[in-house]
Amino acid sequence: MSILADAKTRVLVQGITGRQGSRWTDGMTGYGTQVVAGVVPGKGGTTHGEVPVFDTVAEAVDATGADAAVAFVPGAGAAEAVTEAVEAGLRLVVCPADGVPLHDALRMRRTAVAAGAVVVGPNTPGLITPGSNTAGGAKLGFMPGLCYRPGNLGVVAKSGSLSYEVCWRLTAVGIGQSTVVGIGGDPAKGLRLGETLALFHDDPETAALLVVGEIGGADEYEAVEYARRPDAKPMAAFLVGRAAPAGRRLGHAGALVTGTRDGWPAKVAALREAGIQVADGLSELIEVVGGVLAATS
Amino acid sequence: MTQLTEDHAKRLLRRYGVSTPDGRRVGSAGEARQAAAEFGVPVAVKALVPAGRRGLAGGVVRAGDPGAAADAFATVTGVEIDGLRARSAYLEPWTAVAAELYLAVTLDPDTQRPAVLVGAAGGVDVEAGQRIARVGLRDDGSVPVARLRHTAAGAGVPAGDLGALVPVAVALARAYHALDCRLVEVNPLGRTDDGRLVALDARIVPDEHALYRQPEIRNWLHTADPRPAEDRLGEATGLDYVPLAGRLGLISGGAGMTMALMDLVAAAGETPSGFLDCSANPTRAGYGAAVDLLTADPRVAAILVSIFGGGTQVDRVARTLVAVLAERQVDRPVTVRLMGTNVDGADAVLAEAGMVNHRSIDAAVEAAVASLPPAGTEEVAR
User: Fold this and answer.
1) Contact (CB<8Å) B263/A253
2) How would you write B316-351 as a 3-class SS string?
3) CB distance from A253 to chain B under 8 Å?
4) Phi and psi dihedrals of B28, rounded to 5?
5) Do A233 and A206 form a contact (C-beta atoms < 8 A)?
6) Which of A106, A215, A245 sits opposite B244 (nearest CB)?
7) What's the pLDDT tens digit per position in B97-133?
8) Across residues A96-121, what is the average pLDDT?
């Protein structure tokens, strides 16, 4: 079944008629995702190809039985769109938008947690359960399908672009993925890294885990926490930012409280100490992941 | 991450009830002299730059008379702090304090929730080994006061200061939310002889994603003088740029892949010219600005463009790159690696322009490093 979404998931796309929304919806349906509805305030009653469009998420859910949403809505309006979806009863909402204000992201997560829903993102390409000719897959987001193939490695990543490179390499040597989840690079996330690992832990189709991380923040320590479980699944990790000069904040917001804990050496040391196999560089990735998969029984 | 200057940060915090010394922004030695005469000496003369640790860089001077204040203005506007030179200074009556605390509200990276940070030894070297304790805010943004008192005491804050500490923490938390901040920090929070707590310095780091709804802060940031060049560049072009002074110019997409590229370049024994992520503006204007940035840098001897596009269609990137390079007649060697959505189209576009698309990032890094002149060659004069 993999985690969160698969070919049976009935997906609703907020912003389906926008430039991003329409392009990525076509990409999702082309991959096999069941897109059953679109939501664009003021465009209710129209269609996007075969997909009926509604004014509100509640109306769309009522009419189509959608059970998940992807919000292709720009950053300033994204949290509101996601909140509307959660309030309408959806238990999975993917929020690809970048530029979501920090305090909106905090509010979005609180709403989701209170409702028992999962919000993936913000600032992520989304999540994908790879499909094959025999078992349908689904993607909720805009990652390029060519990077993925079905398998039993669960992947969780902070960086979208890096997750493409990593999965493309794995796929090329036949290492397939159960589900690949982009939790995004923002400091206040929806679904957390540790929560994703817990979902993979309970998924019978996931035999081993890969964490794709980086400098900044403390997410990777959630993997250390998970690995302390006596029944933890074998885990590999790959972190970028090794060459970043100390004290400089690059790209995704680094921690504002200075220290060494969010640097590459501290994270890698902690991961290794917990028994997680860490690739020193991209070129060691396949070997390390292969080793971890061989450890599954 | 850009912060407000001290004068603006203090102005905002005063609105929330935080005590600060009187202060005045001055734009000349003459104004400094005048302000010192009016405040009474001694005064603190501080460089107005959006940077921390000004004291260590010579950007904070105590002046004992108006003449010294005028000299101090020249001193603090003459030093470079984080690559910036102040155009104006902030004058305050010198405030004698018996103790210095640390107080801030920011996201706790472990919980990814806002927290109050409190320490008993504020001042410039706050990072050096002091115990900073954290108290998470409630879901509604309020400060759990009893827990704050208990935690602050445990961190070494004297019992006599706890009563005065609480309203300052509450004020910082309110400002943090209302002003869409990433960080609100008072360091040091000083205790005067009469037991009051006064913000001797203040730092506010706004959330760049919320500037659209914080017009006063947006205006201050955009009209700041000096303003970090990378900020101005980011606002104008969408490029996310951190210069690093190496000779291999990198243009990349996505923070993670940019860091991965830098790691590969470093492993090959070279230094990147910087972290340069174009993903926010993958257009002619964006790539044009990136190429211009690199070609204007005399240290950059070769350029490597590496994009793995998911949302970004790399055949369009190829077309844009070819046009941008042709327009500028770039004379440094350019190595390209495009992969992802529409990569076959990218191959064709580049081939037509007589360029190779290195599908593998390892091959691209190797080719780019090989395209550099031998190490030690004089930097290219322009």
Assistant:
1) no
2) HHHHHHHHHHHHHCCCCCEEEEEEECCHHHHHHHHH
3) yes
4) -160, 165
5) yes
6) A245
7) 999 999 999 999 999 999 999 999 887 666 555 689 9
8) 98
* Nearest CB neighbour to A143, from listed B180, B277, B310: B310
Query: Rounded distance, CA B279 to CA B41, Å?
Result: 52
- Give dist(CA A258, CA B360) in Å, integer: 36
Half-sphere exposure of A126 (CA within 13 A, CB side): 30
C-alpha torsion sign, points A250, A256, A257, A262: negative
Question: Residue B153 corresponds to which tokens in the numbers above?
Answer: 């005491």
Contact assignment for B210 to A102 by CB distance below 8 Å:
yes
Nearest to B185 by CA among B169, B164, B204, B171: B204
Mean pLDDT score across all residues of chain B: 93
Summarised one tens digit per residue, pLDDT across range B44-64 is 999 999 988 898 899 999 999
- Model pLDDT for residues B2-35, shown as the tens digit of each residue: 899 999 999 999 999 999 999 999 999 999 999 9
The mean-pLDDT minimum among A85-99, B169-183, B202-216, B286-300 falls in B286-300
B255: nearest CA in chain A?
A251
Q: Can you state the percent helix, strand and coil of chain B, rounding each to 5?
A: 40, 25, 35
Interface with chain B: mutation pick from A23, A31, A103, A155, highest number of B CBs within 10 Å: A103
A contacts of B310 (beta carbons < 8 Å): 125, 142-144, 160-161, 164
Q: Which residues of B touch A218 (CB under 8 A)?
A: 109-110
Q: Which ipTM did the prediction report?
A: 0.95
C-alpha to C-alpha distance for A96 and A142, rounded to whole angstroms: 8
Q: Does residue B156 sit at the A interface (CB-CB below 8 Å)?
A: no
Stated as kind and residue range, the H or E segment containing B366 is: helix B361-370
Length of chain B, in residues: 382
DSSP structural state of residue B298: T
Number of H helices, E strands in chain B: 12, 17
pLDDT of A136 reads 82
At residue A5, the 3 state secondary structure works out as coil
Interface check for B140 against chain A (CB to CB < 8 A): the answer is no
Question: Sign (positive/negative) of CA torsion A94, A99, A102, A103?
Answer: negative
Spatial distance between the Cα atoms of B183 and B205, rounded to a whole number of angstroms: 5
Written as six digits, the tokens of B70 are: 């005028």
Respond yes or no: is residue A103 known to be catalytic.
no
Cα(A209)–Cα(A237) distance, integer angstroms: 8
Nearest to A150 by CA among A165, A164, A126, A167: A167
**The one catalytic residue among A48, A103, A201, A252:** A252
Q: Tens of pLDDT along A46-73?
A: 999 999 999 999 999 999 999 999 999 9
Which residues of chain A are within 8 Å of residue B110 when distances are taken between CB atoms?
A: 218, 221
